[in-house]
Amino acid sequence: MSTFNLENIVRKNIWSLKAYSSARSEFQLYGKTDGAELTLLDANENPNDPAILDMDLQIRNLNRYPDPLQSDIKEILSEQKGIATDQIFVGNGSDEAIDLLYRIFCEPGKDSVITCPPTYGMYEVSAAINDVAVVEFPLTSDFSLDVHGILKSDAFAKAKLLWICSPNNPTGNALLKADLQHDWQAENYTKGGMMDMPYAPEFEQELKENKENLDRLIGGFNGIVVVDEAYQDFTENQSFIRRLDDYPNLVVLQTMSKAHGMAGARTGFAFASPEIIALFNKTKPPYNVNELSQKAVLKALQLTDQTDQQISEIKSNREMLSTLLEDLEYVEEVYPSEANFILAKVKDASAVYNYLKDQGIIIRNRSSQIPNTLRFTVGTTQECEVLMKTLKEY
Ligand SMILES: *Cc1c(COP(=O)(O)O)cnc(C)c1O
């Protein structure tokens, strides 16, 4: 008789693992329907299909392994982001980069990392898979970083990774600004002012605080600071890519899944020093991004006008939706967003959520993270109109 016992041979952290619950796994949507009859405002995707034709992709040679270092993609990213190709890692979604950061930097069963919840769930799930401890420093009541608490903690002295999602999912606000001085100049310039416009006194204070925060949180940290910029395309703030030269321990994550409308292609990026990128390249599976995705992403990156136009439509829909939400009697608070979703506090989140679901509109209930909150992905103008009409009838 076999004495085999599965539980006995599985790593304890995997046996007790709580799986990541993706937006749509709750509906068992996959395999049964393509969701065509539902309005999907739950996963922060760009609702527009990039409309890349099969023939555009020129896919040949699927019998051959794909380029292990994705040179064509890095070439175009290098131009668009103003960064060297050896400072770019291309992954099977940014989720692969998240997992690799644990595998590269953290000893299982020994090391720890810092997260600032409520935030993206994968930092914690990946930690659990890699048997790495998580020390949480919750955001303050206005959803800002508890900088003081983090800096004075033991955890800050020891942790290997510090996760900062900015703009943050699900709160929508920026947690740190990469270069406020540049943001100020750019904003004044667009309004017709001069580049060297003097600062407003309250801005001067904000500028000083942000600089101190960066120097202490990133400059003063002995581990890696990861700034996850999945929603960077929806904010006016500068990307942390421009700070890589200042902080050798900085890693910036971006993705094709959100603004670029390519969630299905599973492709994300890490930007860092050439030394850190070399570690990613050593650790990743050799052919981590398949040929079909590489071709599609290359094409999508070239559609800059189309993407910019979609982003500006999403941003103006965001303002429209946020105004409407503020007017609804049962909505208690609408949080300002620099992303393609809006978080709102309502009187009874489950009731509103179930009502919308019954009407075929799927949003995300975030009440487990922040009581009575709902997260609405900003969809097409038409989707927003359907949502607004339905919300008014509640
Ligand atoms: C959606 C999202 C991602 C994207 O992950 P991919 O694996 O690239 O699809 C990463 N970080 C955050 C915070 C997100 O919300």
UniProtKB/TrEMBL annotation:
Subunit structure: Homodimer.
Gene3D superfamilies: Aspartate Aminotransferase, domain 1, Type I PLP-dependent aspartate aminotransferase-like (Major domain)
Chain positions found as N6-(pyridoxal phosphate)lysine: K258
Highest rank taxon of the organism: Bacteria
PANTHER family: HISTIDINOL-PHOSPHATE AMINOTRANSFERASE (PTHR42885:SF2), HISTIDINOL-PHOSPHATE AMINOTRANSFERASE-RELATED (PTHR42885)
Pathway info: Amino-acid biosynthesis; L-histidine biosynthesis; L-histidine from 5-phospho-alpha-D-ribose 1-diphosphate: step 7/9
Identification of the protein by name: Histidinol-phosphate aminotransferase
GO molecular-function terms, A-Z: histidinol-phosphate transaminase activity; pyridoxal phosphate binding
Keywords: Amino-acid biosynthesis, Aminotransferase, Histidine biosynthesis, Pyridoxal phosphate, Transferase
Record-listed E.C. numbers: 2.6.1.9
GO biological process: L-histidine biosynthetic process
Keyword hit for Ribosomal protein: no
Required co-factors: pyridoxal 5'-phosphate
Statement: the UniProt record of this protein carries the keyword Transferase: yes
Family according to the record: Belongs to the class-II pyridoxal-phosphate-dependent aminotransferase family. Histidinol-phosphate aminotransferase subfamily.
Entries under InterPro entries matching the protein: Aminotransferase_I/II_large (IPR004839), HisP_aminotrans (IPR005861), PyrdxlP-dep_Trfase (IPR015424), PyrdxlP-dep_Trfase_major (IPR015421), PyrdxlP-dep_Trfase_small (IPR015422)
Catalytic reaction(s) noted: L-histidinol phosphate + 2-oxoglutarate = 3-(imidazol-4-yl)-2-oxopropyl phosphate + L-glutamate
Stretches assigned to the Aminotransferase class I/classII large domain: 40-181, 219-390
